Predict the structure of DUF362 domain-containing protein.
Amino acid sequence: MASPAASEVYIIDASDRYHAVEALWHEIGPPSLEGEEVAVKANFNSDDPFPATTHPDTLEAIIGQVLDAGARRVRLGERSGMGETRAVLKNRGAVGIAERAGAEVVALDGLPREGWETVPSGGLHWKRGFLIARLFREAGAVVQTCCLKTHRFGGHVSLSLKNLVGVVAKKDPRGGYNYMAELHTSPHQRRMIAEISRFCPCDVAIMDAAEGFSTGGPERGSLIEPGVMLASTDRVALDAAGIALLRLYGSTPEVMRGRIFEMDQIARAAELGIGVRSAQDLRLVALDSESKDLVLDIRRILDETG
């Protein structure tokens, strides 16, 4: 399968998150959201502060851009893997931000069976397939924001592809089958993570890398401070750039070893046509002078080990 056209990853200084999100949004030029119902997927896996979870300013800035683009309805959907979802969203400030903006909050683990769509297992590494929230399948557009961090429970990295595990049901509301238990005990975990993105569209993905975890993760780890935000319409390109950024700072053996496009998450997502298939098809664009040197460093790592 040939690569799609080259994908851009835009990078900007993160000292002012509101300005950064606005600049990234307009550079990407997302499709018109006029009158659309938009689903937002942030990163609220646990009740821990950024960079374990989405920074409040980033979430507020993204919802603001979606509303300014004319969205009729905005819904923030989440399923926390380490904690009770609604409590996590409240404690992390997400509920307040959504309420002030006029957006809705949907705790996905409270959805009835009718709120989930069955994805069959054919061609996947999921033994029984999985259930994905209809909120994301049926939205007119999907916007997500992820963090920059490693994942010590088998994912190796937790970036935009891993962030979408939160749109999959933990358990079948009817039969009780535990999809997350299967995921976290499978030798194919990272391929399974990538396969979710085949069934969850994403129009804009923004990675807040003002800070990150270079080891540990997802809720705690060794803190690094790249001081940038990245964005793309291509989740594979975005995650490849994120991995290169982790390598620049020094990370876990699993992250540092081998070629980026041979890592399970990236390779499987590229194989499924979710994004670019090689580092050569990934173009980095610095949006300000502060991020130019970092972009050159990321490009060097992609050229050498992508």
